[in-house]
Amino acid sequence: MTRQRAKTATARPKTRAVPKTPVETADGLVKIGEAARLVGVEPYVLRFWETQFPFLRPRHARSRHRHYDKETLEALNVVKRLLHGEGFTIAGAKKYIRETGIENLRSGAKPSSAPPPAAIRNEKAAANGTPSALKRELTAIRDDLRSLHAILAR
User: Fold this and answer.
1) What letter does residue 15 receive in the DSSP assignment?
2) What torsion, rounded to 10 degrees, do the Cα atoms 90, 45, 49, 80 define?
3) Closest CA relative to residue 111, chosen from 77, 136, 82
4) Average pLDDT of the residues in 54-58
5) Model confidence over 134-153: pLDDT tens digits?
């Protein structure tokens, strides 16, 4: 026969999750976990985006911890908006950022509803089945898949 513990008045009350405030260092930097929480993605996503977007370069402490400043957090939010909100592929987001400029996007410029002329040309070439256009598209897709495979293999 097993004995059950009687509930007493001294039982610990349940704790509630308290929303965390950003923990910044003395120079206004946040660590990767906090940056991921602020952006709304997992830390491994930020590390992957760093490999794909050259302008995402956080500072590293001597302990090799990543520290993100305000400008980098804004750039991360731009990347998230393009990839998750606007539906860009990584290759498409890179191209759009290259054409528009990260500074313009940080200031609040949104992707226009009409694609840029270069994108129209690429779509027409792909629609016509031009081998070089198809090869470029497939190469970009293969590169994205290799990057994802490398992350998943860790």
Assistant:
1) P
2) 60
3) 82
4) 85
5) 788 888 888 888 888 888 88
- Examine residue 65 and state whether it is found in any structural domain, yes or no: yes
Residues 30 and 100 in one domain: yes
Q: Is residue 92 within 8 Å of 111, Cβ to Cβ?
A: no
DSSP code per residue over 82-128: IIIIS---HHHHHHHHHHH-HHHHHTTPPPPSSPPHHHHHHHHHHHH
Q: Write the CA distances from 80 to 60, 74, 103, integer angstroms.
A: 22, 10, 15
Residues 132 and 92 in one domain: no
Statement to judge: residues 81 and 137 lie in one domain = no
Does 66 share its domain with 108?
yes
Q: How sure is the predictor about 3, in pLDDT bands with cuts at 50, 70 and 90?
A: low
Q: Which of 24, 30, 25, 22 is nearest to 72 (CA)?
A: 30
Q: Which of 11-15, 62-66, 138-142 has the lowest mean pLDDT?
A: 11-15
Task: Rounding to the nearest 10 degrees, give the CA dihedral for residues 30, 33, 37, 42.
Answer: 140
Q: Is the pTM value of this prediction over 0.90? A: no
- Residue 140 buriedness (CB in 10 A; 0-12 / 13-18 / 19+): middle
